[in-house]
Amino acid sequence: MAYRFRIDLFFVFLSILVLAGCYLRLYPNGADSFEYLRPDRLSLRTRSYEMFRPQKALREEEELVRPSRHVSSVRDWIIPTGDSVLFPEWEVLVFVSPEVDVAAESGEEYQCVFHNNETSPARLDWVLPFTKSRAFKCVLPRRTRRLRPFIQPALTRAAPANRGEIPPLTKKLFRWTFLVYESFSTENDVVLFAKGVNNRQGINRPPSELRCVFGDNATTAVSTAVTASNQEVFLCRRPDLTALLNEETENQRIKVSIEISDEENGVVLIPSVAYYTPMRTLATHEQKYQLCASTMIYNAAKFLKEWVIYHSRIGIEKFILYDNGSDDELLNIVEELNQNGFNVETVLWPWPKTQEAGFSHSAIYAKQTCKWMLYVDVDEFVFSPKWNNSSTPSTQMLSSLIPKNPNSKIGQISISCNEFGPSNQQTHPIHGVTQGYTCRRRFEQRHKSVVLLDAVDSSLCNAVHHFVLKEDFKWKKLSLNQWVVNHYKYQAWSEFKAKFRRRVSAYVSDWRDERNPHSKDRAPGLGFLPIEPKGWANKFCEVNDESLKTMTQRWFGIGMITSTSEYKMAWEE
Predict the structure, then answer these.
(1) What pTM value is reported for the model?
(2) Distance CA 200, CA 551 (A)
(3) Backbone angles phi and psi of 410, in degrees to 5
(4) Which alpha helices (H) appear in 142-275, and where do they start and end?
(5) Residue among 420, 419, 312 nearest 374 (CA)
(6) Which of 91, 251, 285, 350 supports an S-S bond with 325, CB 3.0-4.6 Å?
């Protein structure tokens, strides 16, 4: 009996060894995935803050650049990188300095190599407009996702013959939710944009707990006071960079970040991919445009012509589009519009869920070029019922909104919205949204605004639909019988699902997250799954409203003889 027991015990032990060997074979760094169970990992919040202290960050940086005996043999295909950030849906952005020789048109193939030897194809997606940094995008491999901590990858030009030659990867991957992501210098301030400082709507950390830090060397870094803290926008006093600049460093980029100081966590330096840049604005003209329009756009190229042509014909002189990382035909459509005489500019703004911050940026970026700014989305169209009898559009139509008195203290004009439903459409209407969606909800929903940029408060605080104004300016609200915004919000299911897959507002949940079920930002009656609700095509249809459809047919219809004849709209050409 004892002999049988020893034999069984031996086979159990052997089975454990075989299973362990198979696991380590499949997941070479698997032990790292249990790192969070160590006693010194239990306080995750404290540990995550500790890693970003300037002194420790500097030591980690020194470890990363320590020479490896293999570097000389791989320097021809390994690409020097800056920092990497983990974005939503497991996307990794790898930033490369503008001095590094990489080009999308070279035909070279790139890849991300991770610390557990997993690889992922990388493509050069963007060149950031203000720092000229190049951003490569790759996807975090499935086997790497289970490992902790997440480590920044190496970027290579081709598959390495021997992955062991890559220097050890130890620098932690920045998280999108805790990051300084953009910087903009004005005449009086340096404006920083950051995630993770003010996480709750309406609750902002006091400026006294914050400092702006210029330079990533703990010994020579320069810090200045934060004078305003609102949402994701922080105003810093301009620094004296004499200590940072000398003959050897005057051409180097200066990283800028925010330091948090409180009793609970001590001093925390937020990870940053932002760099200090001199003051810049749009190119100056002989005089300002009276009325511009700005919006944030993501994969909405199919809607753009209709929106630009319509609003241009009623008075918008320049369009500034904040491109939230589109991968459709946006740039081609913009080029076509500009070749046809329209004035459209794109500003790459790839940061997810930052619509408020993007609008704050536009308020200072365009201030020297635009006097008034209309903030509406590409599925929103401004019109006045008094235009119903107009045979043609006029560029003076929208300007009638603007006060004629140069001494007027009106700094913002708000227009109420009507929200339209799918109107029994199954796909995107071939003649455009103004022609296809004609049934709406009965009562007005929210508002959009035209803003005098000189009247915007220095905090740049906004709620997407309107800005906080300086104390001596007033806010005027218009009634529906004067002006209205047709918001084609609830479109054919295929369009609606794609649109709401990626929400852009900082405080609005992804519609697939099971939280805030009663939020006004959610479609009434819509659940959390991307499944078309029963009867979707006829939802939100309480009032048939063809006012704008009829008017735009009259203004922009081509080959139209009667209301039932075949026709094209100007934006279909």
Answers:
(1) 0.82
(2) 43
(3) -75, 120
(4) 142-145
(5) 312
(6) 350
